[in-house]
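Running this now, will post back.
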Amino acid sequence: MNSPGEQATPMSSPLFSLEGRVALVTGSSRGLGAAIAIGLAEAGAHVVAHGFTRAADQTAERVRALGRKAHAVSGDLGDRSTPARLVQETIAALGALDILVNNAGTIRRAPAAETRDEDWEAVIEIDLSNVFRLCRAAGRHMLERGSGRIINIASLLSFQGGILVPAYAAAKGGLTQLTKALANEWTARGVNVNAIAPGYMRTDNTAALQADATRSRQILERIPAGRWGEPEDVVGAAVFLASPASAYVSGHVLAVDGGWLAR
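Update: finished.
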């Protein structure tokens, strides 16, 4: 895999080829989602790039520059009608849906005793409930075709409680169990469901932690790799789980954390 900032090259092995596959990547206007969308395209996939308030046009342009088909869509994943629409638009635009990457998410920071109901509900709706709805809508299409890959973006807080993010920890913990539950039902029917648990990545979601000198130092001291992760660090895992190389992998949560969980 390329180092952060290095230009990636298309996958040459058929084991990792996504040639002709169609992927929907939520939250792909920037950060992890954009990196994953570009990585899938470099491996051969056509991509529908989703953004929250506006379509992920820049990501779609980068996909087209690689010679792949691309379509940009927008939609509020706090709205429970959005998941089915995104799947429908993907199939209408590119003819199928082979790979779903549920990357979009939100986080609200506050002590548990001060967490408002509306903040709890917003995080659970976006990070868990609407991920289920996306999986359900995509899963129906994939099950009919007898093949597909679903990759949910979990978190280290799928395993740990975190600090000041009770709703996020609950949602990501639930997401790992959802991943396993869907894998139990769908793997024998050709649809593999897995998750990636990124470590501490330089994204908008971790901006507050990066800006806190004490907390940032504490985090770095625990990461064996000695650095924060970059969005590109997740790309190899996503390509693997979307590709034929992972044909016998389902219900797994793959940590990409620089060794954090091993410490």
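Helices lie at 31-42, 57-65, 82-94, 117-145, 166-186, 207-211, 213-222, 235-242. More later if anyone needs it.
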